[in-house]
Write a structure and sequence with these properties.
Layout lengths: L1 E2 L2 H15 L3 H5 E2 L2 E8 L2 E6 H7 L12 E6 L5 E3 L4 H4 L6 E4 L1 H8 L4 E2 L3 E4 L8 E6 L4 E7 L3 H6 L5 E8 L2 H4 L6
Parallel strand pairs: 7-10
Antiparallel strand pairs: 1-3, 2-3, 3-4, 4-5, 5-6, 7-9, 8-12, 10-11, 11-12
């Protein structure tokens, strides 16, 4: 378990900033304590400093996980967000997409969101902007990347993809043996 290097921190913060923008500062400086990011086995964990001090007594090879896994670094040093970060991204998301009840199951099976399943979208969402996907009942379902801007979504055909799927809460069931 070690702190992230400057390069790793920059890459990770750029990825998170696609979804929550300048609200990134709110993740680190929270009113209930100070939180930090730590790297362990190419995975980035979001953990309170109090728990981090307690975990210092455990050797690195015996430590399986600590805090919440935000994502992992690939072999090419790119950062990939995990669905476990959804609970921390959703409250601070700048751009949101709500999908209709009929499209929820399709999204939770790992498919992209089509225009026919789009309920609402935040105004001024640009193309390729990170978005958090919600059900119409405001339950966060996952996150993805907007394939079309808000203005383009109004005039595309119903079978056009409007949000590229990246992660959803259905991954807990589909990949439960590999999710740590």
């Amino acid at each position: 378990m070690r702190p992230l290097t400057e390069e790793e921190t920059r890459v990770m913060f750029e990825k998170i900033a696609k979804y929550i923008g300048e609200n990134l500062q709110l993740l680190v400086d929270r009113p209930d304590g100070t939180y930090c990011f730590r790297l362990h086995n190419d995975r980035v964990y979001y953990v309170s400093e109090m728990i981090l001090k307690l975990a210092a007594n455990i050797s690195g090879d015996k430590l399986v996980s600590l805090g919440t896994c935000f994502g992992k670094f690939t072999k090419t040093h790119k950062f990939r967000l995990h669905v476990t970060a959804l609970d921390y991204l959703a409250p601070y998301a700048k751009y949101k997409v709500w999908i209709k009840p009929g499209a929820e199951q399709s999204f939770l099976y790992g498919n992209h969101v089509l225009k026919s399943g789009l309920g609402r979208i935040t105004e001024n969402t640009s193309q390729y902007q990170g978005v958090v996907v919600y059900s119409m009942a405001d339950v966060p379902l996952g996150f993805g990347v907007a394939a079309k801007s808000t203005q383009d979504c109004r005039k595309v055909d119903p079978m056009a993809i409007v949000v590229f799927h990246q992660a959803d809460i259905g991954e807990y069931v589909r990949h439960e043996e590999t999710l740590t």
